[in-house]
Design brief:
- By secondary structure, the protein is an alpha+beta fold.
- It contains two helices and 20 strands.
- It has a two-stranded antiparallel ribbon.
Amino acid sequence: MGKAQFFLLFFLSFSVSFSLEIGDPCEKDSDCGSQVACIGNLCAQVECKGDADCGSLQICKEYACLNVECKASKDCAPDRYCKGYLCQKLSCNETSIPKAHSCVQVECLNDSACPTDKKCSGNSCISYSCTNAYAQNHTCIPYQCHQNSDCPLNEKCSSFLCVPLSCPSGSYPSEHACVNCIADSECAQNEQCINSSCAPISCQEGRIVSRTCVANVSAFQPEAPSQPTQPTSQAAPQNQIPPCAFSALILSAMLLILLKLRK
C-alpha cells in the first residue's frame, strides 16, 4: 500500500469517527450522518435529505418523502406535460394535436380543414375514392349524367350535373341547346331556319315567293305561238253542198227540161 492510499484511508476513518450522532449539537446538515440532519442545531434522524433518497415519484420536502404525480413530462400521458409535479393537459390550437407531451402541427383535425373534395384522415387531407360519383362537400355524390341525353330537354350535362340552359333573348331551349328556330315558320318571310337559326334566303336574280327564290320573267321574251282554233260543230264540211246551191241546181235542171219539151 502506498503512502497516498494510507493517508486517504486514515482521513476517512478519522472523519467517520468524528461524525456527529443523533442528538449531538450541529450547525449544518453536513455535520451529521447520512440519514441525519441538523434540525434546531441538533442532529436528528430524517427520512431524506434530497430527492435521491426517495422513490421515483417522490420528492424530499422538509426531510420527508412526499408522493407526487410527476417529476418530468414522461411520467404523464402523451397529451399532458408535467408542471409543479402535476400532469397538466396540453392546450393546442386548431392546427395542432397533442403528441409526446407537446403540441405538433398537422394538416387537419377534421374534414372542415380540407378542400371540399377531400377528407381528413390521419391528420392529413386525402382525396376521396368515389365510384360513379364525384367528391363534393366532403362526400361522394352520385353522377346525375354522363351526356346531355341523360338530362331533361331544357337542361344540359355539365360536370356530371344536369343544369338548366340559360338562353339569351330571342332564343329558347330545345333538345339540350339554345335555338332561335326549329321550323321555317318561326322566321320572316324572306328567311329560312338553318342550323336552328333564321338566315336570309339568297335570291339575287329573282323574287322570293313562299320562301322560294323564283326567277323573274323578261318583258321582251316572245310569246308562244297560239294554236289554230278547231272548227265549230255548226260549220259545214268542205265537201258538203250548201242547201241554197242545191235548190239552184234543181231549178236549172227543170228549166232545161222545159226548153227541150217546147222544141
